[in-house]
Specification:
Length: 499
């Protein structure tokens, strides 16, 4: 395992922007336009190239968008009301980011520009799920049907075209879906103008404020295994501010980055309440001062600004501010509330499972003959399906992480719960394929104990999830949501089969 740390090609790296030299908090937080899809009518979204200013003092940046902005429009939907979206590929015929044909799935015989939309977290039939091989080219469109037969949650949509979705998403192809339901609407949570999406991402920006995507210069290991940016964007803006009143706000935070984990807190570390995760409300609010979000994870948090009247409060990732809240000083009467019980989230008992699967997360290091790969179960994407859960059945998947990284593992179509994480002896597994635990099982903390569609599989641990395969028969995918890993084989199909 020697060549894990691959070198980026230093000779072609352009001069990068230094965001610390920019005037902070001069742009208001952009709010993507709202696209109402809660009436059952057909809506149309065009993928297209445009230019967007990420900061007042920067020239516009070339981006690819859904509907003309990055992030794309916030789609508003109502649980139980099906929606139909026509996704039209109106992108140019050439990609403006480098396609690395050495990465599997990016073969030269495929058209350079191809796209397919996946609604992350949605329970849909496979034909509307955005299967990676179902990409289509500029000039074509696809009609996807979303039944919305699921609980209120913050979902998101993004590109999923085989071999290049890390580039398409990096170029700007992502947006939010807010699915509401009557139960949630009855709780009195902050709503309307005080229910705000915060979509986080990071990008490498050149001095001229253009997107730069690195390509490895090492021909023996031609892969940059995670891309991290120098610029943190909130709703597509660099260091924006938001004017708020001294009252409660609900923020739907999404990590839409390729590979970065966001470690968030407010300056001064006042507490806030976590009320939801990937698949909607938690059972009860959890009071925290920090939150960690892996790529593709969502968290709903309520910040009460009433004790911060007149202040400016930064939202901080690691040690650096990424945006600022400007709290007004007027008196307001806040009628919102955060009830002590949000909804019933019954824990799925282990005894409900009729099947157990062991899934390894592996690195394949043979830097001389092959590029490094990340694999699930030692298998590549195009090998035949090996996971065929029965529709309506419940399974426990044990994710054995044999790598040094945390991998955010996502399953399409289903929601699941995290059972526990437990350290195990990797050497013994490699030698004899037996699991010897080296410590006690750790149940998920309350903020991870709700319904999830992404689970952080920590290194050196077996992470167990329990999944009921409710929904539809057909072929779906599960994968690591670090997009560079996903592109280089850390994605596999699974097929839900009829009982
Ligand atoms: Cu966020 Cu396979 O997706
Ligand atoms: Cu990964």
């Amino acid at each position: 395992m020697l060549c894990k740390h691959l070198v980026q090609d230093q000779t072609h790296v352009p001069l990068l922007l230094d965001p610390t030299k920019l005037a902070p908090f001069v742009d208001p937080l952009p709010l993507p336009p709202v696209l109402r899809a809660d009436q059952g009518t057909l809506v149309r979204v065009d993928m297209k190239e445009t230019e967007q200013r990420l900061h007042r003092d920067l020239p516009p940046t070339r981006v690819w968008t859904y509907g003309g902005c990055m992030p794309g429009p916030t789609i508003e939907a109502q649980s139980g009301v099906p929606m139909r979206i026509e996704w039209r590929n109106e992108l140019p015929s050439k990609h403006f980011l480098p396609i690395d044909h050495r990465i599997h799935g990016a073969e030269k015989d495929k058209p350079e520009v191809r796209a397919i939309v996946h609604m992350h977290g949605a329970r849909v039939q496979t034909a509307s799920d955005g299967y990676p091989d179902d990409w289509y080219v500029p000039g074509q469109s696809r009609l996807h049907t979303y039944p919305n037969q699921q609980d209120a949650a913050t979902l998101w949509y993004h590109d999923h075209a085989m071999g290049i979705n890390r580039l398409n998403i990096y170029a700007g192809l992502f947006g939010n879906l807010i699915l509401r339901d009557a139960h949630e609407q009855s709780l009195g949570l902050p709503s309307g103008e005080r229910d705000i999406p915060l979509t986080l991402s990071d990008r490498l920006l050149t001095e001229g404020a253009q997107l730069y995507y690195p390509v490895s210069g090492n021909s023996e290991a031609p892969w940059v295994s995670e891309v991290f940016g120098n610029a943190m964007l909130v709703n597509g803006a660099l260091l924006p501010y938001l004017d708020v009143e001294p009252r409660r706000y609900r923020f739907r935070v999404l990590n839409a980055a390729n590979a970065r984990f966001f470690h968030l807190k407010l300056a001064g570390e006042p507490s806030f309440q976590l009320i939801g995760s990937d698949q909607g409300l938690l059972a009860a609010p959890v009071t925290k001062t920090r939150v960690l979000l892996a790529p593709a994870e969502r968290v709903d948090l309520v910040i009460d600004f009433s004790s911060m009247a007149g202040q400016r409060v930064e939202l901080i990732n690691d040690a650096l501010p990424i945006m600022q809240f400007r709290v007004g000083s007027g008196r307001v009467n806040d009628t919102s509330s955060v009830p002590a019980v949000l909804r019933d989230v019954p824990r799925t008992p282990e005894s409900a499972a009729t099947n157990q699967r062991l899934m390894t997360l592996d690195e394949y290091d043979d830097c001389v003959a092959e590029p490094m790969l990340m694999l699930l179960n030692g298998k590549r994407w195009h090998e035949p399906v090996t996971e065929k859960p029965v529709l309506g059945s419940t399974e426990i998947w044990s994710l054995l992480n044999l790598t040094d990284d945390t991998h955010p593992i996502h399953l399409h179509m289903v929601r699941f719960q995290i059972l526990d994480r437990r350290p195990f002896d990797e050497g013994e597994w490699l030698a004899s394929k037996t699991i010897r635990y080296t410590g006690p099982a750790q149940p998920p903390p309350p903020e991870e104990a709700g319904w999830k569609d992404v689970a952080q599989a920590w290194p050196g641990m077996v992470t167990r999830i329990i999944v009921r395969f409710d929904g539809y028969v057909g072929k779906y995918v599960w994968h690591c949501h670090l997009l560079e890993h996903e592109a280089n084989e850390m994605m596999r199909p699974f097929e839900v089969v009829a009982a």
